[in-house]
Amino acid sequence: MHKVTQEDALLYHSRGRHGKVEVIPTKPYGTQFDLSLAYTSGVAAISCSRLYVSMGVRKENIIMVDSKGVLNRKRTGLNKYKQEFITEYIIPKPLDPRLLSYVASAVTRAAIETGVAKHPVKDWDKYRQTLDKRLSDHIKMISSISGF
């Protein structure tokens, strides 16, 4: 098979209509009012959330916010589209001892991926266990203060 070069790709895209994808509206858009109905932030948020779910993201991992705050079960008057994304969720406190080793691991992973860290981690489970062991005294202290 012929190896694709940059020149091949440029030639391919120079012919015919520009672009790779075409969006065809399914609703009328003859006026500015029509467009404002079709492209609200709420419509965008729901559409994006549905896309995320179709790609495998669990609904309970999506926290949706509108102009009145986080969508949750205590909110009343939500339309059926917003109700679709109401979940029971917990937003942890920054020093939640149940998360310290996970947060530290995420920071470490980011440091490795960006080249900041000098030593790669080969076994993430072992690394997290080591962190848990090192943090255990701190966790006991934090738990006694915060009530976890």
Walk me through this protein's architecture:
By secondary structure, this protein is an all-alpha fold. It folds into 2 domains: 25-83, no CATH class; 100-146, no CATH class. Helices cover 48% and strands 3% of the residues. It contains 6 helices and 2 strands, in the order H-H-H-E-E-H-H-H. It has helices at residues 6-14, 32-38, 41-54, 80-83, 100-113, 124-146, and strands at 65-66, 69-70. Strands 1-2 form a two-stranded antiparallel sheet. Helix 5 (100-113) packs across helix 6. The radius of gyration is 24 Å and the shape is flat. The model has no long low-confidence stretch (mean pLDDT 79).
Summarize the structure.
The chain is mainly α and about 150 residues long.
What is the topology?
Layout: H1 6-14, H2 32-38, H3 41-54, E1 65-66, E2 69-70, H4 80-83, H5 100-113, H6 124-146
Antiparallel strand pairs: 1-2
Helix pairs in contact: 5-6
Poorly predicted runs are: none
Summed up, the helix count is 6
Distance between the first and last residues' Cα:
61 Å
| Helical residue percent band | 40-55%
For the secondary structure, the number of strands is 2
Summarize model confidence as the mean pLDDT.
79
What oligomeric state do the depicted chains represent? single chain
Spatial order of strands in the largest sheet: 1-2
Q: What is the domain tally? A: 2
Class of secondary structure makeup = mainly alpha
The major beta sheet can be summarized as: 2 strands, antiparallel
Query: Helices and strands, in N-to-C order?
Result: HHHEEHHH
The percentage of residues in β strands lies in under 5%
What's the overall geometry? flat
Computed over alpha carbons, the radius of gyration is 24 Å
